[in-house]
Amino acid sequence: MTHDLPPLLWLEAFEVAARTLSFTAAGRELNITQSAVSQRIRLLEDRLGQALFVRHPRSLSLTLAGQAWLPSIQTAFLRMRDSTAEVFGLSRDAPVTLRSTPLAQQAWLAPRLVAFHKAHPEVALHLASGFWSNDFGSEGADMEIRYGRGDWDEQECIALGEGEEQMVALAAPELAARLQRPEDLAGETLLHSVGFAVGWRAWLQAAGVAELERQTRRISCDTQVMALELARQGMGIALAHRNLFMRWQREVRHGLVPVFDLCVTTPERFWLVRPLRRQLREPAQKLWDWLVSHRQD
């Protein structure tokens, strides 16, 4: 392997292909053909002397070398973008980008953005949705609302709301009326929102009816918004974050009521997050300061 760096186009092809795990998707993003992406990857692998991808019949996966190298390449591209914007002012007039889960957007963020826009109409905003943990990261967003324990590296994390977060069971009034005790969940449909540390299994254990899990029907949703909408339409019972739900009920007549008196504490919560190593632009700083000052409203 020579000591000079591979061409930037090859590195770009690797970063996009590794992120999407698809030469076809990488070609669409880079506006080139799938074969051009494949050729650049082959040239890069020849230059490095190691394979970066395992080519399966209908999919791709990274080799150990590819997995180890990818974070450095992504960091390098991010730093180039940031420094270019900082030096040449390319992002001076760009909208402030805030990424969040759909539930946090509806239940917490929306009313605060309405008030912020009235106070600062000059600030252009772009709202992006994230569903899974790997949807979130500093790339492309000035700040984020993330769900977790608040222990992300190199991030300033501000907890939203006070006190511990709890999970509460919710259902449409007609369904809730026939559920008098946890044992009544036998035969009912439990709506699971994936990606949470505390879900139905923990709730049933806390209620002393862990054995009922095998006697319930299961529907899994990749967003809590969808689980709550199905619950509103009487399809089953969903779990929600009590603090967010109470705030949501005040602002939107959502048609859900708590089932039972049991709430289960979870170590996770929603956080307002921004990268520590990157200084916010003035309009982004205005939004950050506003959200921080109104986080307990």
TrEMBL record:
Cross-referenced Pfam families: HTH_1 (PF00126), LysR_substrate (PF03466)
- Name all HTH lysR-type domain ranges: 6-63
UniProt KW ATP-binding keyword: no
What keywords sit in the KW lines?
DNA-binding, Transcription, Transcription regulation
Q: Does the keyword Transcription regulation apply?
A: yes
Q: Superkingdom of this entry's organism? A: Bacteria
Q: Which InterPro entries match?
A: LysR-type_TF_proteobact-type, LysR_HTH_N, LysR_subst-bd, WH-like_DNA-bd_sf, WH_DNA-bd_sf
- Which PROSITE patterns does this one have? HTH_LYSR (PS50931)
Q: What is a GO molecular function of this protein?
A: DNA-binding transcription factor activity
**Some GO term, biological process aspect, for this entry: which one?**
DNA-templated transcription
Q: Record's family?
A: Belongs to the LysR transcriptional regulatory family.
- This chain belongs to the protein called LysR family transcriptional regulator
